[in-house]
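re: that complex we talked abt at group meeting.

here r the seqs, copy pasted straight from the sheet so there may be weird spacing, ignore it
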Amino acid sequence: MQFFKTPHIEFVGKGRKAIMLSTVLLLVGVVFMFGHKGLRMSIDFAGGALVEIRLDKPTPIADVRSAVSDAGFAGAEITRFGPPTEYLIKIKAVGNAADVAEQLKDALSSGLAGHEVEIRRTESVGPKIGAELRTAAFWAVMYSLLGIIVYVSWRFQFRMAVAAIVALVHDVLFTLGFFSVTNMEISLAVIAALLTIVGYSLNDTIVVFDRIREDLRTRRRENFDRIVNGALNETLSRTLITSGTTLLVVASLAILGGEVIRDFALALLVGILVGTYSSLFIATPVVVEWQRRRASKDRR
Amino acid sequence: MGKNKWKLLLISFVLVFSIWSLYPTYDFYTKTPDERARMSGEERGKYIESAIKLGLDLQGGMHLVLEVDDSELEESAKKDAIDRAIKILRNRVDQFGVAEPIIQQQGNKRIIIQLPGLQDAERARNLIGQTALLEFRLVREQEDVVRVLNALDRNLKGVKVEGTVVDSTAAGEETGEGVAAEGASAAPDTMATATPFDSILPTLDAEGVEVPLTQITADRPFTSYLISSFDGGVVVDERTMPSVNALLATAQAQRAIPPNSEFLWGHEARPIQGGGMGRVLYLAEKRATLDGSKLIDATTRPDPDDPTQLNVGFRLNRQGAIIFSRFTGENIGRRIAIVLDRRVRSAPVVQTKIPGGEGRITGLDNDEEANDLAIVLRAGALPAPVNVIEERSVGPSLGRDSITAGTRAAIAGFIVVMIFMLIYYQAAGLLACAALIFNLVIVMAALAKLHAALTLPGIAGLILTIGMAVDANVLIFERIREELAKAKTVRSAIEAGYDRAFNTILDANVTTLITAFVLWQFGTGPIKGFATTLSIGIIASMFTALLCTRVVFDLVTANRQLKKLNI
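got the structure back, here u go
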């Protein structure tokens, strides 16, 4: 079985349009990220306390809310976590998070009279740790990008490394933008997903670059644009299949993996989709553009 | 064919080794909880050594990050403090009875503690978080107390601190007209616990009537807060504690308190007249005559006056006993405060010289508190207070649910990918599926051998590995198809396919490994688990895709001239 014989799609010609489209989308994301709401940070980064509870019978969220606010936690954020018996209560940016988690637990046990309250999970992160984790997360993303730029320049060419990084930054920004627009929280798990995307979305790009590297050796006479476009088309089916199989497993993780891991799975899902797009329409066009500029400079 | 023989040998070795490594895991997790509970410590230890460990997020447990507050220590003591703190905490945790606790230093001020399978997070936090500094201090005599209180009133005139003003209506209701009625209706033993105000402090209130909270009079800015006397101290309404603390912290108040004395709060809240709870404030010597470092043992024992209550009895070493004996002998008739973490547990009157170096701590809330106090006293005091700056605890039910959901997602993802590979690549797809299963076996075996914990993100890493491991096969198979399309023979197409795909697979996987390494450096606990499984999975996928499937292709095509490849 085969989905398609080697297609003839004009990727390189569409490169500029794709870059424009991406720029617009990324701008929307960035506006949201730095706009009035900003990126929503989870307690991992903002500091605060979180309590996940399970009640013995379905309970309206309003009851949970009043139990929490009666205890003096007006700023608490309460969300249903899966079935109507499970809730997540978060209080961000508090000084003594461990005490707050403890007080919340007591407030829920006494405030929801007639219910059996099971505490499934508590987390508390002090503000200092939160700030440190923010810095650490930022540097983790930076170091992984640096590692990749070094490796790709060594194995390929510097311009390919730059193009790959452009595509990766694109993927990371897009995923962050997605989280910002959908108002989802950035947690440690989401950062882990981002780093995974940085590593994985590069795979497709490398498959293409590898083919370009090979074709440059075997078809010296041909025009650079043609070689690149040819390489994209020749590798298209494997690009789609490899991303496709990974998307399948990530989707099953998002659907069946449970609430705790869902944000992580969603971030991966978005990142892998965008990563596939960017290796076809961003990374390679950047290389072509670079080549064109250099060629025109050489002629002058 | 010699090359393939070696490859086959290597593959068989890896397979056998992996299955052998996984056997304890299989054996352990297929046992019923009953059987596991019956296991002896030694037997359990053997499994812990060799079976895959579940992370805290899957088996439930507590992760704590503590920071040692060494701000009050001298420079020279700071370096030593964290090592001692770790030793003492390890002692406490061991006695608390948690299987496989992890206690390690992070940076130069922090301690990470992981307590797997722990149920009572609050109790654990109390046990770990308290400094457990036990001190014996002489309580100041009444004349001294009265003198200091009067000095406080003099010095604090006109001083305003936050929270001094109490809501007059609420306080009025409780302490005004209703006092008599409420007081009368209160349980008799409540009245007995709070000794009625006598004339010990005549300057305060000769009538023995408690001072309403609202009557903070200008000429008695401090003593207006005092309700009665008890146990050698003065009683303050719990609600006004912040104001009293604020007043005592002022420079004016500090000048009124002699430099060798300080005020300490009692540990226990006791009912006061007119409802509410009061706390005793003691004036004690600043210097401890004796501290917990001279203690050699602490055990729980029933209270002789009330056998339903547990006390903690302690024994001092020889040197401690000598000091204690001299101390009690010199102070018959006076009160000694037994102070734990700057809170007075009790302040009994010394009746006689106590020579044996034994004593007991009373007034504990429940048996658990008594047990834990005995543990912390035996383990010794922390050199400096510790603060919990991060805490994550997962209950066992969430852990179980996560295992179920994670396993379900893994199986579903696995099946979907296998079906796709079988349909799309047929016979070659079957080979890829076999490689995939082999891959998972290797990853699990590596987890068991490396003693790495399987976390929920770790399961996610495993799932992701399924998706990525087939990538290598896809790259090879697509390349072979391409070579076949160029009308090459089957054997040369396979050869070319593997050779040409090798670089691509290597480069693609190395970049993923780079980020997995960064992630491993950055993450803690669950996230590290993800980075670990992902890295092992990627390396294993190179082995299965490049080596194992290749051998099968070679063997199939070795002795026959295949015209067509089922790919």
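couple things i noticed - Chain B is about 55% helix and 15% strand. Residues 164-214 of chain B have pLDDT under 50 and may be disordered.
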